[in-house]
Structure formats: C-alpha cells, structure tokens
Amino acid sequence: MVLKICVIGAGIIGLSSAIQIQERVGQGDITVVADKFSPETTGDGSGGFWKPHMLGETPISDLRRWSETTWKHLIAIAMSPVAAQAEAYMVSGYSLSSRSQYQEEWWKDLVLGYRHITPRELQMFPDAKSGVFFTSVQINVVAYMDFLLRRFQKNGGKIQRKAITSIDELAPDYDVVVNCCGVRARHLLDDFEVTPVRGHLTRVQAPWVKHFVLRLDPGEEAFVLPGVMTTVLGGADEVGNWSIEVKDEDKGAVWRRCCQLVPSLQNAQVDHHWVGLRPSRSRVRLETKHVTVHGRKVPVIHNYGHGGSGVTLHWGCAAEVAELILQEIQDRRRMAKL
Ligand SMILES: Cc1cc2nc3c(=O)[nH]c(=O)nc-3n(C[C@H](O)[C@H](O)[C@H](O)COP(=O)(O)OP(=O)(O)OC[C@H]3O[C@@H](n4cnc5c(N)ncnc54)[C@H](O)[C@@H]3O)c2cc1C
C-alpha cells in the first residue's frame, strides 16, 4: 500500500520532514503544499546558526535529541564535498554576558570546544563580565533550502502552491497530513499557544569579521554572525507583533548594539534589512492527532512551534515525523489483521 501524504509548509521544517519521510519510510506519494516557498520562508531570512534559543518549556530531553541529530547532520554536510552547495560551514566565536557568573548552557557538550573565556579575551569586550567560546555550525539557509528542494524532487516528491484554510480540506485526498505551517498555526488551528516573536536582521558587507559574537543580556541582546557573502547583525525581538515591515527604530537599535560588540562594523556597508516572525510556542508541538472528515479518520502529524531554533532542530524533528508515520503504518497493519 502506497500512502498519499501531504506536508503543509515548505519552510525548513516542512521540506526536511518531507525528505525524512521519503528516505526513512521508503514508500509514499508525497506532496508539499504551501503558499510560500524558498526564498520567502522564515528560515531563508534567519541567521542559520546552530544554537538552541527561545523554545519555551519544551523538555530538555526532547531538545537534546532533536538538536543533536540536527548537529550531526549539519556537521556531516559541512565536512563533505556538498558543503559548497548547501553552504554549511563551521564557525567559532564568543557568547558574552554582563553577569559575572556565566549561566551554563544545557547544550554545551554538543558544540565543539566550549570553554570559559580568559581575562585577556574579556578585555576585548569592555561591556562583558563573563563569556564562553565555542565552535558551532551555520548554513546559508537560502542555499540549503535549494539543496533540500532538489533532494526532495529527485526522490520523486511533488509540490503545489496553494493556501489552505482548514486541514479538513486536505483530509479527503490524503492518507496522512503532516502540518508544518510555522507561526500561522495560530490561525490555521486556532492554537493560541503560538505567538510570533518578531526579529530584525541587518545584513552587511564585512568580510573581515571571522568570529561570531553574541550578547545574551535581556533587553540588550545582540548577535553578529559572519556568513558566506554577508555578515548578519541582529537582536531586536518583539513578542506578539505580526508586522514584517522594517522599522527605523529596529535598524538603529541593531546597528548600535552590534557596533558596540564589534566596533569595526561601523565601516560596513549595509546590504539589506529583513524582518521575520519566530514561531514561538509554550513548547514545540510534535505529535499525531486524528481528525475525522466525512466519516474518514485521518492522522495529522503536527510539527511546528520551533521558536528561534527551527534551523537547530529541523532534521531531528523531521526524523521523528518519519517515525510517527512508521508507527501509523504498523497500527494499520495490526488493525487489518484483526
Ligand atoms: C530574526 C530571526 C532569526 C533567526 N535565526 C535563527 C538561527 O540563527 N538559528 C535557528 O535555528 N533558527 C533561527 N530562527 C528561527 C527559524 O527561522 C524558524 O524557527 C524556522 O524558520 C521556522 O520554520 P518553519 O518551516 O516552521 O516556518 P516557515 O519558514 O514560516 O514556513 C511555514 C510554511 O508553511 C506555509 N503555510 C503556513 N500556513 C499556510 C496555509 N494556511 N496555507 C498554505 N501554506 C501555509 C508557508 O507558506 C511556509 O511555506 C530565526 C528566526 C528569525 C525570525
């Protein structure tokens, strides 16, 4: 039996889920349905940096599993010949705090070479009182999304550009629906635990910046992430605002904080500004629920609410979507035998 599977959403979460289903389940006629494709999705504009961030009360045991799987996947790409195509690379740098006691991270053993910084390093950052240095992995998400889309289509996957008003409209045509609709789950499902956290990024030409620098202080958060073609500056977050218009006050705040962290940025040329909405939720939703439409029971696997960490978690969450489908197939076989 070949299952007809629909994945709602062509962001990093939807595309990776579709590929993991193709490659782990090994059967299925899969269509990705979305009204926005790369380069218009949230991940395309994001920093593309592996670091768990803004994940509500999602249990650490789940986060560790998903982020570790994603880490291994991205590092394997970064260390392979396809790194140039997916634009995945290792990057080292500083994470700083104005507190004298740096708050340890639960993921410190997942990254490479995590260590507290020395007094000499601290002298370079006059506003910081503590900090750590580590190596992580980063992707240029636009290139990575193209890499994923090609892999999905090479595996026989189909795409359809369409806006969905209700999951019920897909249920009659598919055996399984996988819902990866990001922040819009609030409207599609009336899931009021989903809230946008609006973020502003400024991309600049600063090829001399080779280390990332993050400042974690609430209200004064800032980050500088060197990329392949541009360096990403960020740090203005706003909870509950759905606007994706660029605001002058955010431009100013991001510029001021990032130039304070890395003063050489004052001579950088601005490439462009971007605003995106992090799909923040009380906890990441990754589970199967069944809907009954016209007397037909259809499993819906939800995979959304990855906050500021969709890149960091995507491959691990997608692997679990595939496991949930395998479980569904087993349940059907068991029922058929009864
Ligand atoms: C400023 C900023 C910086 C970030 N930096 C990082 C970072 O460095 N590292 C990191 O790990 N994460 C980062 N993130 C978070 C990350 O970008 C998101 O968690 C991730 O992109 C969410 O992916 P998604 O696929 O769930 O959602 P989206 O990319 O928003 O995709 C949703 C998809 O669903 C489709 N869809 C939704 N509703 C419907 C509907 N009704 N009908 C049809 N289609 C629909 C859309 O068309 C789209 O294809 C950042 C986010 C922001 C805003």
Structure description:
The chain is an alpha/beta fold and 338 residues long. The protein has one domain (4-337): Rossmann fold (3-Layer(aba) Sandwich). It contains nine helices and 14 strands. The strands form two sheets. It has an eight-stranded mixed beta sheet with strand order 4-5-3-9-10-11-8-12. The protein has a six-stranded mixed beta sheet with strand order 6-2-1-7-14-13, with helices on one face. Strand 10 and strand 11 form a beta hairpin. The longest helix is centred in the C-terminal third of the chain and has 28 residues, at 310-337. The two termini are 18 Å apart. The relative contact order is 0.21. Residues 8-14, 34-36, 41-43, 46-49, 163-164, 180-184, 188, 199, 201, 234, 276-279, 304, 306-312 line the site of flavin-adenine dinucleotide. Flavin-adenine dinucleotide binds next to helix 1, helix 2, strand 8, strand 12 and helix 9.
Quick rundown:
The protein has helices at residues 12-25, 42-45, 60-78, 83-86, 119-122, 141-154, 185-188, 248-261, 310-337; strands at residues 4-8, 29-34, 88-97, 112-116, 130-139, 158-161, 176-179, 194-205, 212-215, 222-226, 231-239, 269-281, 285-293, 296-304.
Mean pLDDT: 95
The residue ranges in which pLDDT falls below 50 over 5 or more consecutive positions are none
What are the bound molecules?
Answer: flavin-adenine dinucleotide
Provide the CATH topology: Rossmann fold
Specify the overall morphology: elongated
- β-strand amount: 25-35%
Share of helix, binned: 25-40%
Q: Name the CATH class.
A: Alpha Beta
Number of domains: 1
Q: How widely separated are the two ends?
A: 18 Å
Numbering strands along the chain, what is their spatial order in the largest sheet? 4-5-3-9-10-11-8-12
Q: Write down how many β-strands occur, each being a DSSP E stretch of 2 or more residues.
A: 14
Give the C-alpha Rg: 21 Å
- For this structure, the quaternary state is single chain
Number of helices: 9
CATH architecture name: 3-Layer(aba) Sandwich
Structural class: alpha/beta
Q: CATH superfamily, please?
A: NAD(P)-binding Rossmann-like Domain
* Major β-sheet annotation: 8 strands, mixed
Which H/E pattern describes the elements?
EHEHHHEEHEHEEHEEEEHEEEH
